[in-house]
Input
Amino acid sequence: MPIKSTQITTKDEYLSHWQMAHEVPQEFWAKAAENYEWMKPWDKVQSGDFNDLEIKWFEGASLNITANCLDRHLKTRGDKTAVIWESNDPNEAPIKYTYTELHAEVCRFSNVLKEKGIKKGDRVCFYMSMVPELLTGVLACARIGAVHSVVFGGFSAQALAGRIQDCQAKMVITCDEAYRGAKTIPLKAITDEAVESCDTIETVLVRERTGGSITYKEGRDYSLLPLIKAAKDDCPPEEMKAEDPLFILYTSGSTGKPKGLMHTTAGYMVWAGYTFENVFQMEENDTYWCTADIGWITGHSYITYGPLLNGATTIMFEGVPTYPDAGRFWDIVDKFKITHFYTAPTAIRALQACDINLVRKHDLSSLKVLGSVGEPINEEAWEWYNKEVGKERCPIVDTWWQTETGGIMITSLAGVTESIPAHATYPLPGVNPVLVDSEGKTILGNPGEGNLCMELPWPGIARTIWGDHKRYKETYFTTYPGKYFTGDGARRDDKGRYRITGRVDDVINVSGHRIGTAEVEDAINEHPAIVESAVVGYPHEIKGQGIYAYVICQPGQEETAEVLKPQLDALIMKMIGPIAKLDFILPVSGLPKTRSGKIMRRILRKIAAKDGNNLGDISTLLNPEIVEEIKKGAGL
Ligand code: 7RM
Output
């Protein structure tokens, strides 16, 4: 049966599309790709696999993703609003761009990049708050074939420098300062500090936002807005090969420094566009708001590329959920008559803990679809979201995916397949999940529980870790050879629906932000009085997980948690950023270790979760006696 369209409108269609994508993936994805404009058609839809790790989609084709996000809509939707920017300050007027205006603005920005010497393949780093130029700048890079790498504005100078050095960026684009609720963050000063150790940086562009006092370095730094204003609004899109890099985005893993996941042009475009269309099920006059920051993958795929590929209206919000008060999200929903609202469980839980009237006094009747992303959503938060925000009439899409996957992988489809509390539910067409036990044996039949892997490549998968293909292979494809290992655990119910249970590796998910325990330990170990540390996650009411640090002090330099807390946080702020600050510190005299010297984190996780009776087999420990001491210290 020939495939008519890859748009899914019924559950039966979902089921048959999943089958088609499984049985004839090349035909299926060729059909999905027909929605876009190509400068040259592909020779082969897909090649490479999880053994050779030379994954390619739409090889031979050329295209420009911004021609598909912008130019393609000009005839049909030129006057439609593409982006609405809402300020941190509720009294400042929003900025709106129609598709025609956004196209012109991106062209102007593209010309600025070119003038400043940026060429196809060069890396450009963004260290900004959620100002409109973050979105237009990312698109400007894509238009001229430069590779963007956005670094979240909450990272420290050292973290920024590490990323700039790793991808050898030629340019950083920043703000003078960021507004964040009642606070400002000195982005330019942090950039100055970072760039001191980055000899590849030739130019720093500064988007003035607060007017705070900053310094410009002659010949290196330029004010961005006047340059954009003076630039020509016409810039033809660069012809890019399907597998040319589109962006690098850094994310934390179990070990080592953050990994720069590289996404390429054609596969990412098709995946972002396809998933956005089918998951959210928007209609032409709807308005969509994803509350993420463009510094994370969610903001790349579901504020920027996914919505614009689909000609949707997307909101970009500069502020935070609690400023000026905890009703801000709902103010904005009413202000712009948002129909599709996509946020993180941590935000839901935080707002759930505030005065209920902050929600109830709002209309919210424009809402049609709610989404959740970033971490497992607990049932209580799901029910609250459904009842108080969705008034029990909006389907909730609980979307599971990762920086590595480029776009949504497991989710219900709004109004098409069923939403059930705390379950991501079904894999999208093209997604072939499998659960394996710790030996790598596939768990067959339903229900089942295990480590979540993917058996086959999908268009949006990251193709490599920038500059380190070996690490890409080791990180994702060697634990269970021939399979992509997600690092998450999951359960599958009797109907084949997935519930993601959380990370099974040494990654902590704090308020939807991925933090590697090794990175936090490295920062703590910088403290002169600390000999060794072990960091684990533990259940936290609002953040999902909190950061729990076990620390061993030098003999004679023992300190209390109260004394250590500000000192360790200062180190973490310096090396990582405020998102990795500690929630709990427990000074101990030793750590439970195996005979081979490995810390038995399983035990530390249980103790941190106040689950001291269920520690399992500790007989293989070198120092089993330490467990009692640690339990006592933890109050168990
Ligand atoms: C999109 C994003 C990825 C990790 C992932 C999971 C967790 C994300 C969900 C979820 C349960 C969800 N990318 N995660 N979404 N867990 N249900 N709907 O967050 O690279 O920053 O993080 O986030 O552990 O592995 S990410």
The radius of gyration is 24 Å.
